[in-house]
Amino acid sequence: MRHAAYFSLILLTCGLTTQVDAHPISMPLPETAPYLSPDAPIFELTITQFRQQFSQQFPATPLQEFRAIKTGPMQKLVTIAATKISETVYASTVLEVGTAKIKSIQLTWLPVPGNQARESRQQAMSYITNIIRFFSPQLTTKQCREHLEQLLTVGKGKAYTLSNEGAVRYILSDKGEGGMTFAAEPVKLILSETK
After folding, report:
1. Alpha helices in 5-140 (DSSP H)
2. What stretch of H or E contains 174?
3. What is the pLDDT of residues 131-154, one digit of tens each?
4. Are 40 and 33 in contact (CB under 8 A)?
5. Which partner for 186 in 41, 77, 99, 134 could form a disulfide, CB atoms 3.0-4.6 Å apart?
């Protein structure tokens, strides 16, 4: 008998398995961030490679150099680095110690009072759309924006919303006037055999 091998995506968040698709869902917050696990998956590119490729591919939304942040005991598990995009938008990343390969890339929008709030939120939305486009190049820019809008709609009033697109998990926490954080993380691929 022939055995056919195929890849299936498994969402591994705190030991929970859920349906993997591009439709956003809300779940309870895990006790520990999945990227803190020593066997957490990584993107096969360093933060320097990502920054250069992203800035070249999306010149309207460039990223400056990421700087490491001291995190005390957590530094043994991961390296955290961040870069300022504007007064209200920041990018940060969780890196594998020793390789600087990305475990999670995050974008945070901090709202400002007054007329600048809408403009700064739009800036964050542009960066998020381009991060989705970078990690899911099979999607058009319009589809990436629609994916983000789905995350926002499903996540309204929830702690966070997540969805998978291929081998990437997108996570959004939208606190409205309290700010918004978006993350892109790799999902483990598990080889499964069928008869």
Report:
1. 47-57, 116-135
2. strand 168-174
3. 999 999 999 999 999 999 999 998
4. no
5. 41
